[in-house]
Specification:
Bound molecules: zinc ion
Structural class: alpha/beta
Radius of gyration: 21 Å
Largest sheet: 8 strands, parallel
Strand order of the largest sheet: 6-7-8-9-10-11-12-13
Helix content: 25-40%
């Protein structure tokens, strides 16, 4: 068998659903050809290989490249001043009156050029990449008018050309879905923030109907601050994912289970906002709803550029197991983006996106803080 690259002697966490838990293969080998996984399995089963390049992993752990399936990475300005004000005792309304809050980010994003948006997002993207992220979702939503939303989406697409990383774009819809953006191929999915302080169920349903008419999958910021029936509404539209879910009830979770909608948990926002009520993890588990974990990287509620820290918070704050945190940033995150056929597990035929770690136990990935154990990151076989 002729391949471009061959890695041998690794502990492979395949995340293959056909295997139990993390799908571990001890003393495993993995081969890449044309960017895809050409062969994977225990070394003893490996056919004769002729590889252009071969590397010994010396027992290192290999996982699928990490997938950050919920970010607002492209935005203008910073909200550090607001953080300062909050710590000085100012309330939400006072901060808003002083020009803070989400509208501050909207103003800064509207006044930024596409080049400026790309330049300011790059360090955040690089931080995620340095920890093994190979695919990232990026939402628009800070324009609230067409030109800026398009600029954010174009900026997000450009980031994918500047770095070796897969980028999925999501239009975080306002009142209407711009057909211009869909026509320009700038959208992979449509999202909304359904909440008492944002968009209603009726408005969200209208947006989702427009998305459906354009053949675009939907996602939803659901039940973060109150139980508004977001999980059920997302499920009704066959959403790829419903995200946050702190206040979702059993009926909503059951509807997600029936629809195959992924629960994307965002512990960074929970932590940064000092929220008290965690999402219903036991219920999600009991009803077998797939659980993903993401950074929710955004300037207001989750200024987090570390997916490994999100994994740690998922474990410490939401009591996710080690297997759940790792599956949550690989297989289930890929599922939440509708990309599981291409990425998210180590299986023959998928893109060869790998994170190779200087660790022996999988638990070390969410466990250690402030030390980056990534040895090597492979995107599409290179
Ligand atoms: Zn979000």
């Amino acid at each position: 068998m002729h391949v471009d690259r061959l890695w041998t002697g690794g502990r492979l966490a395949t995340l293959d659903a056909a295997r139990p838990g993390l799908g571990l293969i001890e003393d495993g080998a993995i081969a890449a050809r044309d960017g895809r996984i050409a062969w994977i399995g225990p070394a003893r089963d490996m056919p004769a290989m002729e590889a252009e390049q071969q590397e010994a992993l010396e027992g290192r752990l290999v996982t699928p490249g990490l997938v950050d399936c919920h970010t607002h990475l492209v935005f203008g300005g910073s909200r550090a001043r607001e953080f300062e004000q909050r710590l000085a005792g100012l309330g939400y309304e006072e901060i808003a009156r002083a020009g803070g809050g989400i509208l501050a980010t909207v103003a800064a994003t509207r006044s930024a050029t596409e080049d400026e948006l790309v330049a300011s997002a790059l360090p955040r993207l690089d931080a995620l990449i340095a920890e093994g992220v190979t695919t990232i979702e990026i939402k628009s939503g800070y324009g609230l008018e067409l030109a800026t939303e398009m600029r954010q989406l174009r900026g997000a697409r450009r980031l994918g050309g500047l770095r070796r990383v897969g980028v999925c774009t999501t239009f975080l819809g306002a009142h209407a879905l711009p057909p211009e953006a869909a026509g320009a191929g700038l959208l992979d999915a449509v999202d909304a923030f359904m909440e008492g302080i944002a968009f209603s169920a009726a408005q969200t349903a209208r947006l989702f109907q427009a998305a459906r008419a354009l053949g675009l999958p939907v996602k939803l910021h659901a039940d973060q601050l109150s139980n508004g029936g977001g999980a059920a509404l997302a499920a009704r539209f066959g959403a790829l994912s419903a995200d946050h879910l702190e206040y979702s009830d059993e009926a909503g979770v059951a509807a997600m289970a029936r629809a195959g909608t992924v629960a994307v948990l965002l512990p960074g926002a929970f932590y940064f906002l000092g929220a008290q009520r965690p999402p219903p993890v036991a219920l999600l588990r009991a009803l077998r709803v797939p659980i993903a974990v993401a950074t929710d990287c955004n300037p207001g509620s989750s200024p987090l550029c570390s997916l490994r820290l999100a994994m740690n918070m998922g474990a410490t704050l939401f009591r996710l197991t080690i297997a759940e945190t790792i599956a949550g940033v690989t297989r289930e995150a890929a599922r939440a983006l509708g990309r599981l056929a291409e990425i998210g597990t180590l299986e023959r035929g998928k893109w060869c996106d790998l994170a190779i770690w200087n660790v022996e136990r999988p638990a070390e990935l969410p466990y250690v803080l402030g030390l980056n154990p990534l040895a090597q990151r492979i995107w599409r076989g290179a």
